[in-house]
Design a protein that fits this description.
Layout: E1 3-10, E2 18-24, E3 31-40, H1 43-50, E4 60-61, E5 66-73, E6 85-88, H2 98-101, E7 128-130, E8 133-137, E9 147-151, E10 155-158, H3 164-167, H4 173-184, E11 192-196, H5 202-211, E12 216-220, H6 224-232, E13 237-239, H7 242-251, E14 258-263, H8 270-279, E15 280-288, H9 303-308, E16 312-315, H10 323-335, E17 345-349, H11 354-362, E18 368-372
Parallel strand pairs: 4-8, 11-12, 11-14, 12-13, 14-15, 15-16, 17-18
Antiparallel strand pairs: 1-2, 1-4, 2-7, 3-5, 3-9, 3-18, 5-6, 6-10, 7-8
Amino acid sequence: MPIRTRAAIIRQSPGEYETVELELDDPRQNEVTVKLTASGLCHSDDHLQTGDMVLGHYPMCGGHEGAGVVTAVGPHTPGYEVGDHVVFSFLPACGKCAACSRGQFNLCDTGANTLVGSRADDVSSFRMHLDGEDVGQMAGISTFAEYTTAHVDSVVRIPKDIPLKEAALVGCGVPTGWGSATNMAGIEPGHTVIVMGVGGIGINAVQGARHAGATTVIAVDPVPFKREKAQEFGATHSFADIAEATTFAQSITEGQGADSAIVTVGVTTGEHVGQAVAAIRKGGTVVLTGVGKMAEVGIPVSPFEMVMMQKRIQGAIYGGNSPHDVIPRLLRMYQAGQLKLEELITKEYTLDEVAQGYRDMHAGTNIRGIVVYE
C-alpha cells in the first residue's frame, strides 16, 4: 500500500522549497523504500531554487545526499532486506552500460534522467505524487523526504555500526571533493595545490589533497569562517582571493605556480576557470568540479597558452569515483580516523527548515548543513 510522507518540494525555478505531504508508491522490482535519518544540504539542490539548473519536471522533491533504513523491499529484489542501513548515491551505477563497462561508473547512462526525476528506464514513471500529480525525485532518490523509494542502483548498503547522520555525507559532498583531489588532479607527494571555494565540496578536496601527499594546500575563499575551517581540515595556507593565492604559489615554486587547482566554487563561472588556469604551472591541471549556470558558456583562456604550456582542464563529476566502491571505502577511513565527517556538520535543520538552511549557506555560515529526521 502506498504511504504518506512529508517532503520538501520546489514547484518552479526560481523558487523556494516548501514542505508538503506526498503519496509514495510501494517499491517495485529492484527498488527499496527507505526511512531517512539525515540528508545533506548540498549546493546542487540550491541551484534548483535559483534556476541555475533547469529541471525537466515540476514539481520536484529535492535532496540527493542522504542515509537511512530500509523499510520495504520490492519483489524479486535480492541482496536487500528490511532493516538494512543504506547510503544513497545521486549517480546510479548499473554495471552494464558502455560507461560502466569502461569502469567509469560515475558516468553511467542511467543517470540521464537525474533532472527529470523519473525512473531511469521510463521517463513517464514516477514514485511520488501530490494530489494526483506526479512529483519528480531529484536524482531519482529525493532525500528531502521522511520516506523515499529508489532503485537499488542508487543505494549502497553499509554496516549498521556506522552513524547514519555522518554516513549521509558520503553520498555526494565528501566523495566529490575527495575524488576531485585524489583521482582527478594527479596530485603527488610534495605537490602544491590550490582549492578555490571551501564549502561542502571544497573542504573535502582539501582533505583529499593532504591525503594524496600534497605538501602545500592553499584554500581560497572570501569567507573568513571557511578559511579557518579549511585549515582544520588540512589546508596549510588560506587566502581571500585567487590572485593572492596565485602569487603565493608562484613565490614558493620559483615562479612556476601550483601543480593543480581544484575549482569548487558554489556557482562556477568561466572567469573562475580562467583564473585557475593562470595559477597552475606548465603541464598543470585544473579540475572543474563546481557547477555553474546551465546556460552559461565561455572560458577566458588562451588556446596558445593551453597548447604551449600543455595545461589541462579536467571536468569531474562525483570526483571520478564509483559509488559502490568509494562509499564503503570512505566509511572505513572514517572508522579508522583517517577522514573527518562529523566535523563537516555546521548546523542541523528540520525538514521544514530546508529553505532556511540554504539562506544560511548563502550567508557563508555553513560548511555543511544537514536535515535530521526523527
